């Protein structure tokens, strides 16, 4: 089992920056692809970004490309999402996820999920 805990969410103004963290514990020795997803009430969970096992690839949703940066620190078992130039439409609950997958944009391909952290961007 892998346990994921997100942190770093909050209320910010449009144009601000915010960095989310996802700390992993438990079965951290397995090589997992990790990703960030977000969800607003009544909508599906949307892909935001993903990163390969050793950071060998990154993948971003078009809506965040150039503004968000995903990274991971294997020594700390932690993944990050640095969000810049935030917009009100980025408001959502952000979830981190881990899985063994070759389709990192699909939420159903991830086995482990955190509890989510709220990000609210005021206009």
Q: If you had to describe this structure to a student in words, what would you say it looks like?
A:
The protein is mainly β and 123 residues long. It is 0% helix and 51% strand. It has strands spanning 2-7, 10-13, 18-26, 33-39, 46-51, 58-60, 68-73, 78-83, 92-99, 112-113, 117-122. The strands form two sheets. Strands 2, 4, 5, 6, 9, 10 and 11 form a seven-stranded mixed sheet that branches. A four-stranded antiparallel sheet has the order 1-3-8-7, with no helix packed on it. A hairpin with a 4-residue loop joins strand 7 (68-73) and strand 8. The radius of gyration is 13 Å and the shape is globular. The N and C termini lie far apart (40 Å). The mean pLDDT is 96.
Uncertain runs are: none
Radius of gyration: 13 Å
Strand content: over 45%
Q: What is the helical fraction, as a range of percent?
A: under 10%
SSE-based structural type: mainly beta
Q: Return the average pLDDT rounded to an integer.
A: 96
Measured between the Cα atoms of the first and last residue, the distance is 40 Å
Give the helix tally.
0
Helix and strand run: EEEEEEEEEEE
User: Tally of extended strands?
Assistant: 11
From the spread of the alpha carbons, the general shape counts as globular
Largest sheet entry: 7 strands, mixed
């Amino acid at each position: 089992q892998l346990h994921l805990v997100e942190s770093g969410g909050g209320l910010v103004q449009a144009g601000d920056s915010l960095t989310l963290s996802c700390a992993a514990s438990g079965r951290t020795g397995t090589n997992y692809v990790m990703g960030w997803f977000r969800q607003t009430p009544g909508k599906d969970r949307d892909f935001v970004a993903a990163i390969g096992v050793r950071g060998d690839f990154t993948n971003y949703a078009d809506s965040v490309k150039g503004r968000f940066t995903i990274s991971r620190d294997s020594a700390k078992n932690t993944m990050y999402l640095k969000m810049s130039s935030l917009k009100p439409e980025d408001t959502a609950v952000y979830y981190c996820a881990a899985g063994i997958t070759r389709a990192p944009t699909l939420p159903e391909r991830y086995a482990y999920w955190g509890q989510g952290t709220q990000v609210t961007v005021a206009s």
